């Protein structure tokens, strides 16, 4: 399998900071290696960096990027671009093909906030719908990442970090390293 990077479009710092942080946290826990953010909101990066320091892993966040430039570079390097949108092809109709390509090609997942620029639909290799109704971009991302990797990331361990949860049926157990 190859790398997964999430490109977050349309982040509005005064309104979307918490949602964008959750896009990053969901990406991290479900197997992505990093997140590109079109906004220059460093607070999102700092928040996710604190989580990585505490809980481990190598997830990174890059802010202030140009989506067109990043998508073009990604495709030139041989990666594929998947745009999550309610207007796309239903995920069950295309996930097998995307998963097959993911064996040898890295995947950039584009997740919007406000109105997504029209050229994103053309620049993307796949426009994928998690149902053709309005929905949460966090939920769409989680479902797509899980289906792409067939649940393999749900029990993974993160290297490094200061804290680790010990799964238990009742109660909370956190180990400090």
UniProtKB/TrEMBL annotation:
The keyword Methyltransferase applies. S-adenosyl-L-methionine binds at residues 84, 112-116, 130-137. The keyword Kinase does not apply. It is found in: Cytoplasm. One of its GO terms (cellular component) is cytoplasm. GO terms for biological process: tRNA nucleoside ribose methylation. It is an enzyme of class 2 (transferase). GO terms for molecular function: tRNA (cytidine(56)-2'-O)-methyltransferase activity. Keywords: Cytoplasm, Methyltransferase, S-adenosyl-L-methionine, Transferase, tRNA processing. Pfam families: Trm56. Its EC number is 2.1.1.206. It catalyses: cytidine(56) in tRNA + S-adenosyl-L-methionine = 2'-O-methylcytidine(56) in tRNA + S-adenosyl-L-homocysteine + H(+). Specifically catalyzes the AdoMet-dependent 2'-O-ribose methylation of cytidine at position 56 in tRNAs. NCBIfam families: PRK03958.1. Homodimer. Belongs to the aTrm56 family. This is tRNA (cytidine(56)-2'-O)-methyltransferase.
């Amino acid at each position: 399998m190859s790398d997964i990077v999430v490109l977050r479009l349309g982040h509005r710092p005064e309104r979307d900071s918490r949602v964008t942080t959750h896009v990053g946290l969901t990406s991290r826990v479900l197997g992505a290696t990093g997140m590109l953010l079109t906004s220059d909101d460093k607070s999102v990066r700092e928040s996710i960096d604190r989580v990585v320091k505490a809980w481990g892993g190598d997830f990174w966040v890059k802010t202030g990027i140009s989506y067109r430039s990043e998508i073009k570079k990604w495709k030139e390097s041989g990666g594929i671009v998947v745009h999550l949108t309610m207007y796309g092809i239903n995920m069950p109709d295309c996930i097998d093909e995307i998963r097959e390509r993911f064996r040898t090609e890295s995947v950039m997942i584009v997740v919007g906030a406000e109105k997504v620029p029209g050229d994103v639909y053309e620049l993307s290799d796949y426009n994928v719908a998690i149902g053709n109704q309005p929905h949460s971009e966090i939920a769409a991302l989680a479902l797509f990442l899980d289906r792409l990797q067939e649940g393999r990331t749900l029990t993974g361990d993160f290297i490094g970090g200061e804290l680790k949860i010990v799964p238990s049926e009742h109660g909370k157990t956190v180990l400090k390293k």
